[in-house]
């Protein structure tokens, strides 16, 4: 439990959130393959952006990247590098946006800022302004 909290959640996360993740996950031990596969790019940003089409999405919006400021697994540098790769491949200012939730760890949607995260996603889908970083 302490290792899960340390790597996936912020110290302020509730015991229910941590226990819920543990009971809902497929196994207590995650495959090492997951970590290794994240070392190599698995998609070209230009190809990804070219394949995203939806009449439901406001024009120009394709990817919303939300990261946790306290993420112990994915570094801020890697998050920024990935965002920059997609931003370079994009065609417009709103096509890809990134927001970092300073108080959240890796499991953003289960951690302390889950409500803020959900509100950002809804606003983005609805075409409303959100603060990007």
Structure report:
α5 links the parallel β1 (63-68) and β2. The chain contains six helices and two strands. The protein has one domain. The mean pLDDT is 82. A two-stranded parallel sheet has the order 1-2. The two termini are 32 Å apart. The protein has 133 residues and is mainly alpha-helical. InterPro entries: AB_hydrolase_fold.
Q: Which key phrases capture this entry?
A:
mainly alpha, two-stranded parallel ribbon, 6 helices, single chain, 42% helix, 133 residues
Q: State the order of secondary-structure elements, H for helix, E for strand.
A: HHHHEHEH
Give the DSSP E fraction (strand runs of 2 or more residues).
5-15%
Oligomeric form: single chain
What Rg do the Cα atoms give?
16 Å
Q: Which sheet architecture does the biggest sheet show?
A: 2 strands, parallel
> How much helicity do the residues have?
40-55%
How many alpha or pi helices?
A: 6
The average pLDDT score comes to 82
Number of domain units: 1
Q: How many strands?
A: 2
Structural class of the secondary structure composition?
mainly alpha
Termini separation comes to 32 Å
Categorize the overall geometry: globular
Unreliable stretches (pLDDT < 50, length at least 5) are: none
> What strand order characterises the main sheet?
1-2
